[in-house]
Amino acid sequence: MVQHDDLHPSDVSAIVEMALSDHVPFETIKIEYGLSAPQVQALMRRTLKASSYRNWRKRVQDFGSRRAQYK
After folding, report:
1. Does the predicted TM-score (pTM) go above 0.90?
2. Which one, of 61, 33, 62, 3, lies nearest residue 46 by Cα?
3. How far apart are CA 30 and CA 66, in angstroms?
């Protein structure tokens, strides 16, 4: 299992960018980087400011109810 500490800073940056995108599902991140959805959420929690993380989670949850394949 991949851990945040095992990732290169450029990989962390790429994962955050992918997770912030409304067009990249968690499954794509898992395929490319080996991180599960809870691991991506934990990485985002550690990487983003608290308010940015809350806004991201709200957007992901709201959009997820409209599209099953979304995060």
Report:
1. no
2. 3
3. 22
